[in-house]
Design a protein that fits this description.
- The structure is a single chain.
- The protein is α/β, with parallel strands linked by helices.
- About 30% of the residues lie in helices and about 15% in strands.
- The chain contains six helices and nine strands.
- Strands 2-1-3 form a three-stranded mixed beta sheet, with helices on one face. A three-stranded mixed beta sheet has the order 4-5-9.
- Helix 1 packs across helix 4 and helix 5 runs antiparallel to helix 6.
- The radius of gyration is 21 Å and the shape is elongated.
- The two termini are about 15 Å apart.
Length: about 290
């Protein structure tokens, strides 16, 4: 059974109103349809990027999941889905119509001095020792779209140049999680890298379109595949961005949800600060 399950909202991170709409609808879906640990998630959907008004996409389920395929075939369940989206939208519109709350100021602060509120924590990749690599895999029961980095000993990396190191790391990523781990691969095994080019803090990776056949969990699965690749390269090679080509073509897509037209920056917030060492299953013990 597919691990990608549960309705989920996606929004454009550049529009705060879209995030609020997505959160409201996601909360309504969880409240009205039952247990679902997924959260509203930012995503570079082309249709969302082209929309200037508050907007979201809602993935209501995956037919690759037998349970959800059965639910989506039920007319009553589909009606509940529509109602959940409607009520979530109504909550958003009600909240947006309220007057803005006054801005808090520092006690004793001067006129106009506001509290410095940190919305997002400082994020960083795990620290690596020489001869090790950090590989990003999905966590079990991955409703919330997050990675668990695996630190893998690779002594041979110390003798290789940056490009050779990148190739070895991608080969290791394709091998999947270490033995005994219950982490889940986001990308298939095999040789799906057609080409690799490095220039300073940027990389261009040409991958096979056959990756699309491995991605069967909608936008969530495609998002994890993309950032498993991008985060892994970025942390090991100290990169700022990665451009992904598909069969040598720019502005292509792996699974039909994300247009790979621009360089992609790593997203360490998709993974925790801790990392799993190969062979050390930590809290992820196979039962």
């Amino acid at each position: 059974q597919s691990i990608w399950s549960g309705a989920q909202c996606f929004y454009d991170s550049e529009l705060p109103e879209s995030k609020r709409l997505a959160v409201a609808i996601q909360n309504s879906l969880v409240t009205r349809l039952g247990p679902n640990r997924r959260k509203a998630q930012s995503a570079d959907y082309l249709i969302l990027k082209a929309t200037k008004m508050p907007s979201v996409t809602v993935e209501v389920g995956f037919i690759s999941n037998p349970r959800e395929e059965e639910l989506l075939a039920d007319a009553e369940y589909r009606e509940k889905l529509a109602e959940s989206i409607f009520y979530g939208t109504a909550v958003f519109l009600t909240q947006e119509a309220r007057p803005a709350a006054p801005v808090a100021t520092r006690p004793g602060g001067g006129p106009g001095e506001t509290l410095a509120v940190k919305v997002y924590p400082e994020l960083s990749h795990p620290t690596l020792e020489p001869g090790t690599a950090c590989l990003y895999f999905a966590t079990p029961n991955n409703e919330d779209l997050s990675f668990k980095p695996e630190i893998r000993p690779l002594p041979e990396l110390e003798e290789k140049n940056k490009l050779q190191k990148a190739r070895v790391i991608l080969e290791e990523l394709a091998k999947g999680p270490g033995e005994g781990s219950v982490l889940l691969p986001c990308l298939p095994g095999g040789n799906w890298v057609h080409g690799l080019h490095l220039a300073g803090t940027r990389a261009v990776v040409d991958v096979s379109s056959e990756l699309g056949t491995f991605i069967n969990g909608g936008g969530a699965s495609e998002l994890m595949a993309i950032y498993s690749l991008v985060n892994t390269l970025a942390v090991n090679l100290d990169l700022d961005e990665v451009t992904i080509l598909v069969d040598g073509v720019k502005n292509a897509t792996l699974g039909g949800h994300f247009l790979l037209g621009e360089p992609i920056k790593p997203r360490p917030e998709l993974g925790p600060t801790g990392a799993q060492t190969a062979g050390d299953t930590g809290n992820y013990l196979r039962r």
